[in-house]
Amino acid sequence: MVRKWTSSGFANWVVCCTVRWMSHYSRVKTHFKDAQCLIRALKAMGFAKVEHHTSPQGLYGFQGDLRRDTAHIIVRRKYVGAASNDLGFIQREDGTFEAIISDYDRSFGKKDDKWMARLKREYGKTTVFEYAKREGYDVVETTQSKSEEIRLVLRRGT
Q1: Please, which pLDDT band fits residue 103 given cuts at 50, 70 and 90?
Q2: Does residue 141 sit within a domain?
Q3: Where are the alpha helices (DSSP H) in the chain?
Q4: Residue 139, domain member (yes or no)
Q5: By residue range, what is the domain housing residue 54?
Q6: Could you please report the per-residue DSSP string of 71-89?
Q7: Is the pLDDT of residue 158 over 70?
Q8: Do 80 and 87 form a contact (C-beta atoms < 8 A)?
Q9: What 3-state DSSP class applies to 149?
Q10: Which three-class secondary structure state does DSSP give residue 93?
Q11: Average pLDDT of span 102-121
Q12: CA 45 – CA 146 distance, rounded (Å)
């Protein structure tokens, strides 16, 4: 209710409106090309369930509203965090995946540049593990430095 002073006293006006807050989605280019390695990296970062679709599916906002943005790989909002939006990755024509992250989640949900850097490291590690397995190597040692550099020692299986 809004009160306005007039010459005859206060007049009461009832203000009724619907306010819809919608986070804008930002797109972040990546060099990720392997969908399975990306899914494993997301799971390694703690996302309990990651969807993979052959055709892009809609992303949902924090209020459960369907957005125009679509993605092939999706982490639904309930797995991202409280009051979060869906997190998605859409495959581009060149085969790389582009991250689709809401501005809210980039700011308050901590899906910022540091988070993307962690995802890139996790994806790289997953990719190396897959290569090693495919080529007959065993991972002998994995260490991570304070600067978060990952060192792997591989040995050819016999």
Answers
A1: confident
A2: no
A3: 35-44, 77-80, 103-107, 113-134
A4: no
A5: 25-133
A6: EEEEE-HHHH-TT---EEE
A7: no
A8: yes
A9: coil
A10: coil
A11: 85
A12: 18
